[in-house]
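Dear Dr. H.,

I hope your travels went smoothly. While you were away I took the liberty of generating a structure for the chain from your last submission, since the lab meeting agenda had it listed for discussion. I wanted you to have the full record in hand beforehand rather than looking at slides cold. The sequence, exactly as received, is reproduced here:
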Amino acid sequence: MSINPKDFDMPVASFNPNPMKLGLFTDGLPDMPFEQVLDTACEMGIEVLELGTGGYSCAPHLDMEKLLHSAEARKEYLNAIESRGLKIAALNCSANAIGPGERWASHAPDVMNTFRLAELLGVEHVVSQSGLPAGSPNDETLNWVLHTYPPEMMDVLKYQWDVTIDFWSKAADLAKKCGVKTIALENHPMNMVFNVSTLMHLRNAVGDIIGLNLDPSHLFFMGGDPMMIARKLCEEKAIYHVHGKDTRLNDHIKGLECFELGAYNGPAVDRVWNYVAVGYGHDHLWWKEFFATLAMGDYHGPVCIEVEDPSMPNNLVAIQKSAKFLKETMLS
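The corresponding predicted structure, in token form, is as follows:
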């Protein structure tokens, strides 16, 4: 009887044939010229880019109007990226397209124009946020419902979901016409979509073009578990994008205050939590397990660095440290 030695070889993991790619959300370097951002990204080993188009973003590295209307501008823009061996992973229009009043009036057009620009640039993936309406047709302020007592809050939620589903159904129709395959909504506070059940509610209503931009940093301070969410939504094939972003909880303050209600850019030392460079809130072991969970769930998309760290000298230093850390922990 002959024995084939190959029968005893350890199998190569079939669930991760295409490793995740390290990316950069370039809004983290708003004051750096576009081509310098590209060169800096290459120096850090970045492979793909996430580019802000509007909404909350000032779009520091992309002129949406110019690119929408000039084929020559688009050709030059793409050449600057591709000549360096980089690719566009996604366009990002984080916005509140369903917010009330003039404050948010430009956000819905920005989202729709992002889909149109994606088609012209050959980009199939868009990152956004679900947004948050007012609490009623007569309300003029945002209302994020986190507790359903008194019972009237259920009426608020019903109205808000009607508004949210209506907008994203129309947005998804346009996105499909533009060749966009996925819309990854970030699990950001002050949004209708921020956890598993809210994402699935919108996804079931609109379709599987809707998925999650899984950003662990927000889940840390909201009390969620990024690994549990990764595992559950990978089962649903509903994770379309991942942000490499970290948070450090100041437990000695959180134990007293529960939630952070101070100024968003208030002194870091006084806050319940702070965004930090990746690895400065959670260690190598946590991030390795997080990426292993994503890989076992068949996620092969980008992991794009997004940094807001008040303790670092500047954002470039925080991004450089994050890139180094992620290259040590990602399954790539």
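Two observations you may find useful: The chain is about 40% helix and 15% strand. The first strand starts at residue 21 and ends at 25.

With kind regards,
E. W.
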